[in-house]
Design brief:
Layout: E1 6-9, E2 16-20, E3 25-35, E4 50-56, E5 72-78, E6 84-91, E7 94-100
Antiparallel strand pairs: 1-2, 2-7, 3-6, 4-5, 4-7, 5-6
C-alpha cells in the first residue's frame, strides 16, 4: 500500500520544512534540494556562507527570528553558481537550511 508523503514549509521561518510521516526511515538516503534564489540572501555574503542541513525535532526548537536549535548538522553541497544547496537525509522530520558565518 502506498504511503502518502508530506512536506510543509514552516511559515515565517526562513528555509524550514517538516516532512512526513515523521520518523519514516529509508534504506537509501533521500536528497533534499533547496533553490536559494527564493531566499532574501545578500549576494555579497554568499561566498562567506557555509550551508548545512539541520535536523530539528519540533517547532518548539525554532526560536525567534531565524534562530533555532538543531540536533544534527548534515553536510551540504552547493551548486557551482551558489543557487542550489542539497543534503541527504535518512528519515523524515523537520529540516532547515543552516548557515555558518564563522569563517
Amino acid at each position: 500500500m502506498p504511503t502518502p508523503i508530506t512536506m510543509t514549509a514552516v511559515a515565517g521561518r526562513g528555509l524550514v520544512y517538516e516532512f512526513g510521516p515523521k520518523g519514516m526511515t529509508f534504506k537509501k538516503p533521500l536528497t533534499i534540494k533547496q533553490d536559494l534564489t527564493v531566499a532574501s540572501l545578500d549576494p555579497r555574503l554568499l561566498s562567506r556562507m557555509k550551508f548545512n542541513g539541520g535536523y530539528f525535532k519540533s517547532r518548539g526548537d525554532l526560536l525567534g527570528g531565524l534562530l533555532g536549535i538543531v540536533y544534527e548538522l548534515l553536510a551540504a553541497r552547493t551548486s557551482a553558481d551558489g543557487s542550489i544547496v542539497e543534503f541527504n537525509v535518512n528519515h523524515f522530520s523537520g529540516y532547515l537550511i543552516a548557515v555558518d558565518f564563522s569563517e
